[in-house]
Amino acid sequence: MMAIVATFSLPAQALEKPEYSVLYEDGKFEYRLYQPYIVAETEMVGMDDSSEASNEGFRRLFDYISGANSAKSKVAMTAPVQQSRIDSSEKIAMTAPVQQFETETGWRVGFMLPGKYSMENAPVPSDDRVYLRLIPARTMAVVRYSGRWTERNLQKQQARLLQRVEADGLTIQSSLESAFYNPPFMPPFMRRNEIMVEVQGLPESLSDALSANASR
Length: 216
Fold this sequence. Notes:
Layout: E1 20-26, E2 29-34, E3 37-45, H1 50-65, E4 81-86, E5 91-94, E6 99-102, E7 106-112, E8 130-135, E9 138-145, H2 151-167, E10 171-172, E11 177-180, E12 193-200, H3 204-215
Antiparallel strand pairs: 1-2, 2-9, 3-7, 3-8, 4-7, 4-11, 5-6, 9-12, 10-12, 11-12
């Protein structure tokens, strides 16, 4: 899985990002509770090369936020750009109209719509390969890292994440997702990259501690 090769018009710090609270932090590992948000997504079906999928996916999404939508209006860019692998067994809810469909193997690329939009007022993509989806509140296990956007680097971080989730005895609820916050010209050591996965619940010791704090 590679990063989106794209030019962000603003620094990552200036872009709106999904809202979340950190439930637990241990170095570069975190459990986060994300609030619901809407994403614009597209799928590169049957495309194996992650870099090629990244570039094509971002082009479609950039066209959407540049005015290729029902309102012919521009939509502000947000961060991060997210990418995940899809397989033929996965089902995902679409909008306009709402339906369920099975995907083939490939890649999914997307990013959050600004918080001012809802499913009712968000511009509908003109390209039927781009769709909008509401991501519900969810608990994510996350590893944050810097460095180059290489498959080797990504695999290393994926292993760290999965080992920690397994050690904590949690059930994984989603595919692995990559998040990239910076443009390609950002020096690798300054980049913010993340690998994350949705989990069910929290480690028992952490849940007990949070419950105790809430009752005080």
